[in-house]
Design goal:
306 residues; mainly alpha; MetI-like fold; two-stranded antiparallel ribbon; 13 helices; 2 strands
């Protein structure tokens, strides 16, 4: 009985906290119970911190090289300092370049997903809510865009406007919205038939208000989960395109460009490709793990069972 009363008292204390404080406690509590979520949040937090404070903590300049220190293995040291992960063909520090590349990965991943998510959510919301002929036309347009091979679309756009960081972000943003549109449309088709939507109409609310104030808040969690996963997909796409020469151009440092630079030296300088590849793998897995935890965290059925 004492244990039950103590638990009840703790729950009452949490319930009386302000909403942001209650949310923070619930996030920390669920993360502590989920190894996958904890690892994912830890990896994503480290990458974001590196992207923000990278220039401050980088041991060397990621762009300037030292030709006397070309192809030095991990742990090499000279008068200019220690090269923990070795150097590349121009004597540039691999660790510093990985830290610098994290900024591009975070920027491309977050901004591209924001663009794609915003377009896709609005598109899917309108398509599912209006229905009828409008829904059919909008979905056929989305299917048409989805049928175009991604690489061909990137090559065509890059050939017209030129390659670069801004171009890559816009390409990934304006080609990735279709997935959001289809997911949100499916959610809207279910939600718009529910009783509380009928009640909102009965109370005299107009269609625009119902769509944005009643339906959107109840389908946005699916978009958030999808966005979390798509950040990892976008980072992988950026690295792939940069590796193929279709993405970011030097002297901007990206993990994909580091892989491209090191592929011809893989037998003699394995560290040039190994460490950027590990950075990409860990980051993408961390984002996927965090997205998997976020799906469970936002699912009311899972919360109810917890």
């Amino acid at each position: 009985m004492k244990s039950e009363s103590a638990n009840s008292s703790q729950l009452d204390k949490v319930a009386t906290l302000p909403p942001p404080r209650r949310l923070s406690i619930r996030i920390i509590s669920t993360l502590s119970k989920s190894p996958v979520g904890f690892i994912g949040s830890l990896v994503v937090s480290i990458v974001i911190i590196l992207a923000i404070i990278g220039p401050v903590i980088s041991p060397h300049d990621p762009i300037d090289g030292n030709l006397r220190a070309r192809f030095m293995p991990p742990g090499f040291a000279d008068d200019s300092g220690v090269y923990v992960l070795g150097t590349d063909q121009l004597g540039r520090d691999i660790l510093s370049r990985i830290i610098a590349g994290s900024r591009v990965s975070v920027l491309v991943g977050v901004v591209s997903v924001l663009i794609a998510g915003t377009i896709g959510v609005i598109y899917g919301l309108i398509s599912g809510f209006v229905g009828g002929t409008t829904d059919t036309i909008l979905m056929r347009v989305a299917d048409g865009i989805l049928s175009i091979p991604f690489i061909i679309l990137v090559v065509a756009i890059s050939g017209v406007v030129g390659a670069g960081l801004t171009t890559l972000i816009l390409i990934l943003g304006f080609t990735g919205w279709v997935t959001y549109a289809r997911v949100i449309r499916g959610e809207v088709l279910k939600v718009r038939e529910m009783d509380y939507i009928v009640a909102a109409y009965a109370l005299g609310q107009n269609r625009v208000k119902v769509m944005f104030f009643h339906i959107l808040p109840n389908v946005i969690s699916s978009a958030i989960v999808l966005a979390a996963v798509q950040v990892g997909v976008t980072i992988l796409a950026e690295s792939s395109l940069s590796f193929l020469g279709l993405g970011v151009k030097p002297p901007t440092v990206t993990w994909g460009l580091m892989l491209a630079d090191g592929r011809q030296y893989i037998n003699s300088a394995w560290w040039m490709t190994t460490f950027p590849g590990i950075a990409i793998t860990i980051t993408v897995l961390g984002v996927v793990f965090l997205g998997d935890w976020l799906r469970d965290f936002l699912d009311p059925n899972v919360r109810g069972r917890g």
